[in-house]
Amino acid sequence: MALALDPLIHQPVRLRIMTVLHALGPEQEVEFTTLRDMLGVTDGNLGSHLRKLEEAGYVRTHKTFALRRPRTYIAVTGPGLNAYQTYLMALERLLRPPEPRPTAP
Amino acid sequence: MPQDATPAELQHRLAEVAAWTRRTRRHWRHRGVAYLFWLWGAIWSIGYGGLFVWGEGPRAAWLWLALWALGGLGTAAVYLRYGWRVRAVRTDRQDRPAFWPLNLLFMALMFVVRPPHSMYRDGTVVALWILWAYAVLGWQVGRPFYTRWAVVMAGLTVAGFGLLPQRPFYLWMAVVGGLTWLAGGVYQRRGREA
Predict the structure, then answer these.
(1) Which of A10, B8, B57, B109 is the most buried (most CB within 10 A)?
(2) Which of A12-32 are b and which e, b meaning 16 or more Cβ less than 10 Å from the residue's Cβ?
């Protein structure tokens, strides 16, 4: 079965976002400015990529308070994890050298 | 379109995924807990090392007090640096930050009712109390590593207490206990589990 690369995840910044969230696992969430600094992007840039991922149901965000300041936390969702793993499988499949076709006797 | 990407581009994406996964696990996944394990491992080793060298008395007691103060400051510093940046999803409950202060309060109340008599016996009770707190915390926040690690540490503590005389027990706690803390930190720093 041919696996297609999910264009939503394939975009470089979104791939990094998904990789960081996948490495943290669904049980952990990262604060918005921390993620921004890790990735070296602007607030607006990160916000727009997160919006797209959130609309697709790949990540979820929630606002809360930490150290008495309002903070936004981001975590990967179950469908997001599945989509990311499918993307990686597709990537590896595309990079695998083609298997030699059996020749007719 | 991603389907038109060249093999070099795809290879680059895969390399990026590996690099970002490694970086995130090493620096963020453990949420600074690895550093707390190293800090308290060093405190454990130095404190029990002091008891082994000097025996029970004011010098060892002052050493422990200083180490506890240092540990408190270090723990606060690690929390300010890491604690709020990456956190467990389930920590958004209001009662979570109260866990350690409450635990220490109950320990203090226990000593009000029954003042410490022997550093050897009461110190071991405190150590087991702290390990019990880690075991419960691991369960509560869905971090089985804390629970497993606390059970191993408690087993080593009880084994040393039961099998060794007083002074060699302090050496056991300094070396074996301290190393188990440090190993716990290394395990988490490698991104195996936080």
Answers:
(1) A10
(2) eebbbbbbbbbbbbeebbbbb
CA gyration radius, chain B:
20
Predicted ipTM of the assembly: 0.86
Give the type of residue at B181: W
Test A28 with B86 for CB contact under 8 angstroms. yes
| Residue in B85, B92, B146 to test binding to A, most A beta-carbons within 10 Å | B85
pLDDT in tens, A25-82: 888 899 999 999 999 999 999 999 999 999 999 999 988 877 678 899 999 999 999 9
Q: Taking CB atoms and an 8 Å cutoff, what residues of chain B touch A66?
A: 84, 87
Low-confidence ranges of chain B (pLDDT < 70): 1-3, 90-97, 141, 191-194
B91: in domain? yes
Mean residue pLDDT across chain B: 85
Question: How many domains does chain B contain in total?
Answer: 1
Yes or no, beta carbons of B2 and A38 under 8 Å apart: no
**How far is it, in rounded angstroms, from Cα B81 to Cα B68?**
20
Tens-place pLDDT, residues B52-101: 999 888 898 899 999 999 999 998 898 888 878 888 776 555 556 677 78
d(CA B142, CA B152): 18
User: What pLDDT is stored for residue B193 in this prediction?
Assistant: 55
Task: Quote the tokens at residue A91.
Answer: 């990537």
Domain assignment of residue B134, yes or no: yes
Position B121 in a domain: yes
The tokens of A31 are what? Answer: 């604060």
Residue B160 located in a structural domain: yes
**Which one of B5, B11, B29 has the shortest CB-CB distance to A23?**
B29
Cβ neighbours of B171 (radius 10 Å): 16
Q: Which residues contact A53 (CB under 8 A, 6 or more apart)?
A: A8, A14, A17, A18, A59, A80
| Residue B40, domain extent | 31-189
